Amino acid sequence: MSNTQEILEVNNVFKVFGDAPDQAMDMLRNGATKEQVLSETGQNVGVFDASFTVKRGEIFVIMGLSGSGKSTLVRLLNRLIEPSSGSIKLKGQNITNLKDKDLLNVRRQDMSMVFQSFALMPHMSVIENAAFGLEISGIDKKTRHQRALTALEQVGLGSYAHSRPDQLSGGMQQRVGLARALANDPTILLMDEAFSALDPLIRYEMQGELIRLQKEQERTIVFISHDLDEAIRIGDRIAIMEGGRIVQIGTPQEIMNNPADDYVASFFKGVDATKTIKVKDIAQKDALTVSSTSSADVALTEASGQFAYLLDDGGRFVGVSPITQGKSSTVASLMSERLSAQYSLNASTSLKESISIVSESPYPVPVLDDKGVYQGTLSKDHILATLANN
Ligand SMILES: Nc1ncnc2c1ncn2[C@@H]1O[C@H](COP(=O)(O)OP(=O)(O)OP(=O)(O)O)[C@@H](O)[C@H]1O
Ligand SMILES: [Mg+2]
User: 152 in a domain, yes or no?
Assistant: First the structure.
């Protein structure tokens, strides 16, 4: 329900840098390109007619080459940069015409930004750094330290609260930056190349952390990256920018299967398809499911598969039980014979990451959403068939 709610709506947003944006905007409306505008007027088009929506709880990644307009676009979202035209709606409210005070509130409460450079205050302790945004908002010391500590614990730095930034590694400093944004408890986190300065292992770890936070807290995140592996790993959807324009928006798999043009295709060239496919997209729905709480003892003599998947009233996975062909099984007997629920997959796991789990599991692995609700199963055969088709 909340998953489909659109939290941010960007409509026909343009940004022209220069002292005569109106002239440039007229040219753009009449079909001129970024290059024509630049050569004829000297005005630089940062973002060209951007329209998209971001849903509550999704990680929306913006990708593109250097200079394609990613940072400009994300700064337009919280009006660190003023749009030349177009509208931006946050939770249905148009923020493009907000006055200073209301705009400040939006930045404090709704959109926290995490930058590439750690931007920590060297003379302040870790907790003071994490509480800094709250301090600016005038929140009392006790409350802000409580919230900062909670945020530090969320990123695994609770025990470093009283260290100085220079006593932390680069990755840890970036976590403090993330904790500072989280402490604000913003509606949307804006992250501009937030992990780019980190070495690959730490970067990978931080991506995992972000995915976890997003799942646990239903965070909505707009994340800029120029790294495709990163975009595929964390992005529910990706917007690809070229020369100020958004040339394509879609799930990693959609874009990979149907790139809008050669520029987009060149990004995805050589990408391992098993990383872009999520298990929820290939889970099979035909396995036998049984309500574990059913009081009526359903006799299962002619079962379609070899395993029955037991679900509670909310559709959540409880366990899996073998079915002996020809022998009658009841809910009670299935419950008593069920195997340990050791193997399951989160719906947003990539096919690549699922392979080792499915190959170890004695039964087709149940695919579950974030709340544990059963979505289908994934078997070894089905993985092989999927790989063969790609
Ligand atoms: N303050 C500014 N004044 C004039 N032009 C600007 C300004 N900021 C950005 N631009 C221009 O807008 C375009 C997009 O820049 P932007 O910083 O958004 O790119 P980017 O995609 O974030 O690049 P990178 O990957 O290098 O960070 C570029 O042509 C840039 O020169
Ligand atoms: Mg940038």
Answer: yes
Q: Which among 84, 96, 77, 65 has a CA at the least distance from the CA of 21? A: 84
Centre of ligand 2 from the C-alpha of residue 246, in Å: 15
Ligand 1 midpoint to CA 298 (Å): 65
Domain that holds residue 266: 56-83+98-274
- The residue written with tokens 């780019």 in the block is 196
CA distances from 177 to 63, 82, 131, 218 (A): 22, 25, 10, 19
pLDDT in tens, the chain (390 residues): 344 489 999 999 999 999 888 899 999 889 888 889 999 999 999 999 999 999 999 999 999 999 999 999 999 999 999 999 999 999 999 999 899 888 888 888 899 888 777 678 999 999 999 998 888 778 899 999 999 999 999 888 999 999 999 999 888 898 899 899 889 888 899 999 888 877 788 888 889 888 888 888 888 999 999 888 899 999 999 999 999 999 999 999 899 889 999 999 988 887 887 888 889 989 999 888 888 887 666 656 555 568 889 999 999 999 999 887 666 777 888 888 888 778 999 998 999 999 999 999 999 999 999 899 999 999 999 999 888 876
- For residues 214 and 325, membership in a common domain is answered with no
- Tell which of 243, 274, 305 closes a domain: 274
Q: Are 268 and 259 in contact (CB under 8 A)?
A: yes
CA–CA distances in Å: residue 147 to residues 27, 183, 384:
49, 6, 47
11 falls within a domain = no
Amino acid at 143: T
**Ligand 1 atom at shortest distance from the alpha carbon of 45:** 12
How many independent structural domains does the chain possess? 2
Residue in 72, 223, 240 to alter for ligand 1 test, most ligand atoms within 8 A of Cβ: 72
Closest ligand to C-alpha of residue 46 is 1
Last residue of a domain, one of 247, 274, 301: 274
